[in-house]
């Protein structure tokens, strides 16, 4: 999902909280049709006034263009509403309950549910070996390859590092799923198998390939026909929207025309983050989940037994920073879901961030409530604020000031980062960039190859050194020199890639010839996993 900085992080962040069907907005609230019984049907502790006030205050605090909220309670969808506008452009249309949003990693539960359908049909088991369904599957360790189970694809405890291989999925990548699968043997392991939590998108791509192999259909077709259409999810789809569709949100930093349907290229990342859905669609999805896989009309999509399996704790996680405040004593990961306690209630949830949008789907099963949040703003603090506040009202009839909490935290972090950048950061008076001569630049020019990401090029344009990636439409930037063969890559697309600027450290052999490079992210976007790149120089260019 090339999510901007926190787009992917929201899915794993140790602070993540409750889900509400929300899509963030920055202009006055625009109500979509709400069931007549919405006020009476809301969970105890919640009112429309509380929801509206929470959303409006959050939009002002975090400058969010548009929000959509959906709430399920006692077996019914009791509230859906759009707030604000569909894009950053102040002239864009209003959000409504049918506006399509990219839901990012909340697609993972669609993938695990698709696997659940295949388990229900007896076509696979959770403890099947991956190689029994995908004989070509390989990781760097032969023993781990032989013992890797379907369940190991889903719990983020493979031993691969945080966000490993995400550069094949995001940052304008054009990799196919087949190419991602072929690159897995080159991905480094940073921890023992099944011991350490590290959020991973690559293995959900593998899970999607398992679905395709077992079902004989593409992941997109299987999800659309067996889940989305079968469940009757309104305004929901397994493929990105096209120009033929009008009611579509645009995420922060995104823009430009949608593709035509005939030219639509399906991204490798889809099983980890490819679903687009509306507040109405996600709310019905949540309604079916609360009902154990059965639609309100009585049609079984997946069994309650499978629902309980994916919602069961399968791998322990660290507690969030806010654990003391929310009385959280444990956190775990199931199959595509986080599980924890929240003020004494069981909570099952997941977030998703992609294309400048953030989503949140949250269940309080013991209270029969689900809250879904979808937003078109790349700021996890906004969705946390709304979701945690509304969930607190549902659980305990009141809420701490979570909007103020995360606004204060965000402002403090921005101030600290700005101060560090101005005082000690690259390009500051303490570490000024310097201009290389044409002869000095020549050392670095050429093609470099990384075992899993492929070719990377250093070229010259005018007086600047330029860094570009193969298999990426638009990932390019200028290299600014610091002492000792160290550079900063500043990417051209500031709206989408500005938070992914990187250090690039070139390496020399004993004769002084450039032999390769290493990279390190300046920011905190774990999905720009530059630290796992080790490109070696394969050719020179003058």
TrEMBL record:
Residue segments, region Disordered = 234-257, 414-435
- Asked if the keyword NAD belongs to this entry, the reply reads no
Where does the source fall among the domains of life?
Bacteria
- Keywords of the record: Hydrolase, Signal
The yes or no answer to whether the keyword Hydrolase is present is: yes
Q: Where is the Beta-lactamase-related domain?
A: 58-382
* Residue stretches making up the Peptidase S12 Pab87-related C-terminal domain: 435-534
Q: Where does the signal sequence lie?
A: 1-31
Q: Which Gene3D superfamilies match?
A: 2.40.128.600, DD-peptidase/beta-lactamase superfamily
| UniProt-recorded name of the protein | Serine hydrolase
